[in-house]
Write a structure and sequence with these properties.
Elements: E1 2-7, H1 11-23, E2 29-35, E3 39-41, H2 56-59, E4 60-62, E5 72-75, E6 78-82, E7 87-90, E8 95-97, E9 100-103, E10 107-109, E11 126-127, H3 132-144, E12 148-154, H4 164-179, E13 185-190, H5 200-212, E14 215-218, E15 223-227, E16 232-235, E17 240-242, E18 245-249, E19 252-254, H6 256-260, E20 285-287, H7 300-318, E21 331-338, E22 341-347, E23 356-360, E24 364-368, H8 373-390
Parallel strand pairs: 1-2, 1-9, 2-5, 9-20, 11-18, 12-13, 12-18, 13-14
Antiparallel strand pairs: 3-4, 6-7, 7-8, 10-19, 15-16, 16-17, 21-22, 23-24
Helix pairs in contact: 1-7
């Protein structure tokens, strides 16, 4: 029997397990998925936890509840990936053989990699919303916070959900207005980007929006260390950004086992063909989701679109045909802007976010690069779609490859 092994039962791993359970003949293929954690987190929901919009029960479910019949789930950490022998060794003592391997081990935050960040002020004047525990602790901090200088800092790219730091700032602006203390708070976004975002048109639009909300952008800020006693960030060019409350987006890295197995780059991401999702080194290893080094956003929408095009491509490949360059880096992201409104951006490797309507030209209901209430509700509705459609590997009535339909050819200045 042919063996397909999937490492990681997060967003990408769960989606591909469900999709392949339908695409592959169960009489010919055995599908096994390995993960060490029982709980599945809806990570986009971490953004809402600090403001009380979501609670714990909104963002956690059991991973095994999303495993399709016929797929073997093994709960264990991974000791070593041995591509030379097509084996994976688990910490529970098992050794698994595979014909094809899908690496979907994700990415995690590493505040300990930045001097001064994860020391005695961590959890006091320094917080993060990029972990479940961090987001809950930040809720407790914010509900009684009386004001001061609030700084959101991205240590280094790439990060999961690149728009989330901007969303946090704009939701914090709304939240502090609701608490009646916005005038007591100075807000700063210290980012390694040249502006508010990586894509020029979106960066201009989002930069204007932050300015309107009185949020300052400290661009090209490459953090060298944090001085927790003086409560300040210090960049490599010796700029200093003081804070009373620091919201950190720490350095992201791939799984430790990727480094241990000699499969990763300096950040433990697996070098991967950006269009086929095949490992650069091994002809029977594919990489999905945040584990790869492809120049696409590390976001759930990217994993979804990638899985959509990957399934049929994989069937071609196991039938002896060449892989097609089917994945175009397609991503779309709802961006919460506060006060019941949001934006939507839709882009890929070659095309930056453009204004227009999505998904239906001229109709929408969502506006691109423009605030609307529909976009806010689209963001909130996505949670239901995630749990009930995307994780189960079901197809959405949206093109996996980016479409120019409904987009204006030139972005607004």
């Amino acid at each position: 029997m042919k063996k397909l092994l999937i490492l990681g039962a997060g967003t990408a791993g769960t989606m591909v397990a469900n999709r392949f359970s339908r695409l592959l003949d169960s009489d010919e293929w055995k599908i096994t998925i390995v993960d060490q954690h029982e709980t599945h987190y809806y990570q986009p929901g971490f953004l809402f936890l600090p403001f009380g919009v979501y609670t714990k029960k909104d963002v956690i479910k059991r991973k095994r509840d999303f495993m399709p019949a016929g797929v073997e789930l093994i709960m264990s950490s991974i000791e070593l990936i041995d591509p030379a022998h097509n084996q994976v060794k688990l910490s529970n003592g098992q050794t698994l053989n595979y014909g094809f391997l899908i690496i979907a081990t994700g990415a995690d935050v590493h505040p300990e990699q930045t001097p001064g960040l994860a020391e005695h002020e961590w959890g006091k004047s320094i917080h993060t919303f990029y972990t479940f525990e961090g987001a809950l602790a930040l809720y407790e901090k914010l509900k009684n916070w009386q004001g001061g200088r609030l700084v959101v800092n991205v240590v280094e790219n790439p990060i999961k959900c690149p728009v989330a730091p901007l969303e946090f700032l704009m939701l914090a602006d709304w939240y502090l207005h609701e608490r009646g203390i916005r005038e007591k708070v100075e807000m700063v976004y210290a980012t390694p980007n040249t502006g508010a975002f990586t894509k020029p048109a979106a960066s201009r639009m989002l930069g204007h929006l932050l300015a309107e909300k009185g949020i300052n952008v400290e661009a090209e800020f490459m953090l060298e260390h944090v001085d927790p006693d003086a409560r300040k960030l210090v960049s490599y060019d010796e700029r200093e950004v003081p804070f009373d409350l620091l919201i950190s987006v720490p350095l992201h890295m791939g799984a430790d086992v990727i480094a241990k197995s000699g499969l990763g780059d300096e950040l433990n991401y697996v070098p991967t063909n950006k269009n086929t999702l095949l490992s650069d080194k091994y002809a029977n290893i594919f990489v999905l989701g945040d584990a790869s080094n492809i120049p696409a956003s590390k976001a759930g929408s990217v994993a979804h679109f990638a899985v959509d095009v990957f399934g049929e491509n994989f069937l071609r490949y196991i039938d002896g045909q060449e892989l097609l360059p089917t994945f175009d880096g397609h991503a779309n992201c709802f961006i919460e802007s506060g006060f019941g409104k949001g934006l939507l951006i839709d882009f890929n490797y070659d095309t930056e976010p453009l204004p227009g309507r999505y998904p239906l030209p001229g109709v929408g209901p969502f506006t691109l690069l423009e605030e609307s209430e529909a976009n806010h509700w689209g963001k909130l509705m996505f949670r239901w779609m995630y749990w009930n459609i995307l994780l189960k590997g079901q197809e959405m009535p949206l093109p996996a490859r980016m479409s120019m339909a409904g987009k204006w050819l030139a972005a607004k200045n």
